[in-house]
């Protein structure tokens, strides 16, 4: 839905009164623009909440801007609360596997968001750079939408990694790079790639190196498929993994599959150039 600027200006004016405590009749252009963005953000939040799509019709059949904004603001507050509840649940058993970026972003950064986030006057600002690269593209999002998506992604990563022995996860990460703790990398993708490599090679998922026959099976598996068919095969392996190890958690399966396109492309190139050890912990 869209509103004319004249319909939104009274809402902006009301926010300006609240911002200044009614002690000033004017605000800067930059502040007025920020408040208009706040109004538009809340309206967008309402639009994303499909459950309330029939509540706003006025007598003439046109949505009332102030009512839409108010319900959108309530949606923002509800999303903040729900995200904080999820965060508090995840942080209890959070493991960062020696990676500083993972730790700093989730353990240090997210609490700062909850402390300083301004849902009334600047809900579009999520304050953090979210340096740790989750597999879903949360970076185009703003405000609580970005933080909520990020926390959900980390929650799924912790479920995935938490079922694996710590020594295996660290073995894979150290094989990827001795400096893995200082890199800005997605840990889940690196570990998943190695699990799928073991599946292709017919190898047990453990810290032992590949024996020649296993590595040959892996290379043959990759060579028998083009990138597209290999990606379909990997999706099937992810489905099997999630079904057997994670009670068929569909949301987790969808998340893990977000890396498969890049993985298959890189794996094909690695096999072609005889550098599989650049992707998988084969030694």
Description:
Among the domains are: 5-75, no CATH class; 163-283, no CATH class. The protein contains 11 helices and no strands. It is mainly α and 283 residues long.
How would the blueprint of this fold be written?
Elements: H1 5-20, H2 29-48, H3 65-91, H4 100-116, H5 143-162, H6 166-176, H7 187-201, H8 212-223, H9 227-245, H10 250-257, H11 260-272
Helix pairs in contact: 1-2, 2-3, 3-4, 3-5, 6-7, 7-8, 9-10, 9-11
Compute the gyration radius: what is it? 24 Å
pLDDT under 50 segments (min length 5)?
none
Count all strands and give the number: 0
Shape: elongated
Distance, first to last CA: 57 Å
Biggest sheet details: none
Share of residues in helices: 55-70%
Counting DSSP H or I runs of 4 or more residues, the number of helices is 11
Strand content: under 5%
What is the N-to-C order of secondary-structure elements (H for helix, E for strand)? HHHHHHHHHHH
Mean model confidence by pLDDT: 93
Category by helix and strand content = mainly alpha
Q: Can you summarize this structure?
A:
This protein is mostly helical. The chain has helices at 5-20, 29-48, 65-91, 100-116, 143-162, 166-176, 187-201, 212-223, 227-245, 250-257, 260-272. Among the domains are: 5-75, no CATH class; 163-283, no CATH class.
